[in-house]
Amino acid sequence: MKAEIVVDFHLPLRLHMAESKDLTRRDAVKVAGAASLAAVAAPVLEGAPAIIKARAATNAVKYGMVGTGSRGNYLLKHLKGIDTGTCVAICDITDDAMDKAVQTIGGKPKRYKDWRELLADKEVEAVFVTTPLFLHFPVTKDALEAGKHVFCEKSMVFKAEEVHALRALAHARPKQTLQVGLQRRYSGMYQAARQMIEKGLLGEITYVQAQWHRNPGWKMKKDVPNPRMANWRLFREYSGGLVAELASHQIDVADWMLGMTPESVMGLGTRDFMHDGRDIYDNVQLIYKYPKGRRLVWTGISNSSHWAGVGGARTEMGEMIMGTQGTVHITIGDDNNKPIGMWFREPAPPAQVTDAKKAGEKKEAYKAGATMVAAAGSRPLPILMNKDLMTGKESFLEKEMKYARLWLYQKGILVPEEEKNPVDIELESFFNDCRTGGRPRADLEVGLQDSIAVILSNLAMDEGRPVAFSEIEKLGKPGAAPAKPAMRRG
Ligand SMILES: NC(=O)c1ccc[n+]([C@@H]2O[C@H](COP(=O)([O-])OP(=O)(O)OC[C@H]3O[C@@H](n4cnc5c(N)ncnc54)[C@H](O)[C@@H]3O)[C@@H](O)[C@H]2O)c1
Questions:
Q1: Is the pLDDT score of 53 beyond 50?
Q2: pTM for this structure?
Q3: Is 56 exposed, middle or buried (0-12, 13-18, 19+ CB in 10 A)?
């Protein structure tokens, strides 16, 4: 819902007086204050585009895109609005995909059918790799060797040997920017959650529960010229399945929020519902063991899209980040749905029972094995964005507007919205880093750790055993035993 609602600026005050149980004005200030701790990164984020814009006219990064399919076109739609980059070349194996790309971005980019020709084009400074996963590494490798900056979609690489090879290659070329398309890293909402954790508002984070459930899952495209390539996601020859395409975003969120990477993974992957010739799993449950007893549990199913987070207000995907003092429910948005973040405080421990009779009754109930009802949960508080925070410099009217907005958030009538789609921020940030040599938030190691998790998760499911993350040190290196053939469950 957009903020075009007609707001009565004095409403919060009047409601505060009428509804004492609701968020009071004082509570609202507390929330704003707590969340202001969480917004430390925002000015940096918001400052960057302005700096870029000042230089844009003369120094736009000239880029090419390899793979102008669905994601490529989505990025081009956003790139069209960013004047710090100029599309000078595109590459795809189909004319149809390139025609669509030209319609989206406009202008007259040069067209290539072979990425090597695009990379030989001296005008191209940076390359977007938006091909199917199995081509990420070959294109990225050639692009880095051709001296280009690279934005590679997630998940960064496909095979264990590519993890080691890309690390070595990127380290040898420190002046070239290499960014991975994990856009949650560029979301103000996710950054606010991370800052809340750093400031201790959620206590010790011990558990992350994440899901990406669809109903139905991916369908097999029929009657297309090159069916295997058009359906590349569904075949292991090209794809890492649900884990690479969906879980990769959320494993990265767990790593980021927990501030560590997993020690091992175990999981169950089967193909139970989609019998159309695909060979990837359609039913996946994974448990990641992190140091110090931390866990991530990820599930990916294809026959229900319900998500219990944010009060069931959104479907499909999201993460619940649970700490000893609170929990955050969070999910990313897209062009139609804005990100939502909600903060639940852990209830206070039950009050001590002083009445001897009541205490006795309680003890009896425990003895009888009765299930005691837990303490009531807290009302969720929205995770606030920078524009919602009190700076102390507001005019009377601005202050009242902020309180009003807060009240509407608290009532669930409005949700705090990011000022920019994280995809715009990741793209602007990429061009900025190409020019300044800055380090991307979603950099090489973020991308590689994410890919390692994807590769080892699939291995754990294929071989039906827990897989230690240390195995990556041997996998894909000379002398390593070849991976066993997949167990093909289901
Ligand atoms: N960050 C995100 O949220 C997000 C979302 C969607 C997709 N993606 C990623 O983007 C990538 C592309 O996915 P998609 O949905 O666009 O797939 P897609 O099938 O729609 O597009 C892939 C394109 O690559 C082209 N292609 C294939 N072989 C090629 C080659 N040798 N040279 C040049 N082009 C070639 C295909 O013709 C197609 O147009 C995947 O890695 C996917 O995981 C990321």
A1: no
A2: 0.86
A3: middle
